[in-house]
UniProtKB/TrEMBL annotation:
InterPro entries: Mtc. This is Sidoreflexin. Belongs to the sideroflexin family. The keyword Repeat does not apply. Keywords: Amino-acid transport, Membrane, Mitochondrion, Transmembrane, Transmembrane helix, Transport. GO terms for molecular function: citrate transmembrane transporter activity; monoatomic ion transmembrane transporter activity. Pfam families: SFXNs. It comes from the Eukaryota.
Length: 325
C-alpha cells in the first residue's frame, strides 16, 4: 500500500516526476543518467519495450504494477533515442557520460601540463562531447555526415586553441609566483572547455537551425518544423554545457591545492592521483544531473513566438519540442 501511495499512476510517455519544477526534473534526470542502465541486457530491454507496447495496446498482463511500468520506461528512455527509436551507443548515452567522461576530466586537470598533453586531452574531451551531443540531439530531421565532421573539427579546433593560448599566456606571466601560476594553470580547462562546448553544441546541431525541428501539439501530433524552436533548443542545451563544467573544472583544482599541502599526502604522493580521481568522479556525478535539469527535455514554447505557418496549423496556444540533452 505504501509503495503504490509513493508511486504515481503510470502514464505512457509522460515523466514520472513533475517537469515544471527543478526538483522534479532533477529526480527525472537522476533516473536517466543512472549508470546501472548501462548493464541492462538486450533481453531485459526487449521485455521493457514489450511491456510498454502491451500497455499502449491495452493488452497488459494481469498483476503488472505502476512501479514495473515506470522502471520499464526508465530503462527504455536511458537506452533508446526518443526520435529515432534506435539504441544509443553505450559511451554516448547520458548514463555513460560520467563513467566514460571522468578519465578525460582527470587528464584535463592533471598539473604541469605540456602543450602536447593539453592538445591530446582537449581533443579527447571534445571528441567525446561531440559524440554525446550528436547521439542525444533532436533527430526529427536527418543530419548529413559532412555536418557532423564540420562541427567536430570546429569544436576540437576551438578547444585546443583556447587552452593552448591560455597556457602560453600563463607561462609568460613572469610576475606570478610558481604556486599562483600552477593554480591558475589548473583552472585553464574551464574557460577552454566552456567556450568549446558552446561551439560544439552549435556546430554539431547547426543542421537543426537551417531545417528546424518538429513541434508537437497537446496530443503529440507533429504541427510542423520550426527554426525558432530549434534556436531555443540549442541555446538551452549550450547553456547547460557551460554550467556543467563549472564545478567540474573549478572545484577539484581548489580542493586538490588544499589537500596537497596536507602532511599526510606530502609523505604519500602516490595517493594523490587516486584521491584526485575520486574528487573528479564525485564532482562530475553531482554536476551532471543538476546541469541538465535546468530545462526540461521536452520543452514548451508559445505558438505566438513561432513562425506564422505554425500558428496557422494548430489551435494550441503552446507546443512541445524535444530540446535534446
Amino acid at each position: 500500500m505504501a509503495e503504490s501511495a509513493a508511486c504515481p499512476a503510470f502514464q505512457l510517455g509522460r515523466p514520472r516526476y513533475d517537469q515544471g519544477s527543478f526538483f522534479g526534473r532533477l529526480r527525472h534526470f537522476v533516473d536517466i543518467i543512472d549508470p546501472s542502465t548501462l548493464f541492462v541486457s538486450e533481453k531485459r530491454l526487449n521485455e521493457c519495450i514489450k511491456l510498454l507496447d502491451d500497455y499502449k495496446h491495452g493488452s497488459l498482463p494481469p498483476g503488472v504494477s505502476d512501479v514495473q511500468l515506470w522502471e520499464a520506461q526508465k530503462i527504455k528512455q536511458a537506452i533508446i533515442h526518443p526520435d529515432t527509436g534506435e539504441k544509443i551507443f553505450m559511451p554516448f548515452r547520458m548514463s555513460g557520460y560520467v563513467p566514460f567522461g571522468t578519465p578525460i576530466v582527470i587528464g584535463l586537470l592533471l598539473p604541469n601540463q605540456t602543450v602536447v598533453s593539453t592538445i591530446i586531452w582537449q581533443w579527447l574531451n571534445q571528441s567525446h562531447n561531440a559524440c554525446v551531443n550528436y547521439a542525444n540531439r533532436n533527430a526529427t530531421k536527418p543530419t548529413p555526415t559532412s555536418k557532423f565532421i564540420q562541427g567536430y573539427a570546429g569544436a576540437v579546433t576551438s578547444a585546443v586553441s583556447i587552452a593552448v593560448g591560455l597556457n602560453v599566456l600563463i607561462q609568460k606571466a613572469n610576475k606570478l609566483s610558481p604556486a599562483t601560476r600552477m593554480i591558475i594553470q589548473r583552472l585553464v580547462p574551464f574557460p577552454a572547455v566552456a567556450s568549446a562546448n558552446i561551439c560544439n553544441v552549435g556546430l554539431m546541431r547547426h543542421n537543426e537551425l537551417s531545417k528546424g525541428i518538429d513541434v508537437l501539439d497537446n496530443n503529440g501530433n507533429v504541427v510542423g518544423s520550426s527554426r525558432i524552436a530549434a534556436r531555443h533548443a540549442i541555446m538551452e542545451t549550450a547553456f547547460t554545457r557551460v554550467v556543467l563544467p563549472m564545478p567540474i573544472f573549478v572545484l577539484p583544482p581548489i580542493i586538490m591545492s588544499y589537500l596537497e599541502r596536507l602532511r599526510f599526502l606530502q609523505s604519500n604522493r602516490r595517493l594523490l592521483l587516486p584521491i584526485h580521481s575520486v574528487v573528479c568522479l564525485v564532482t562530475f556525478g553531482l554536476s551532471l544531473p543538476v546541469a541538465i535539469s535546468l530545462f526540461p527535455q521536452m520543452s514548451q514554447i508559445e505558438v505566438s513566438c513561432l513562425e506564422p505557418e505554425i500558428a496557422m496549423a494548430t489551435d494550441c496556444k503552446v507546443v512541445t519540442y524535444n530540446k535534446g540533452l
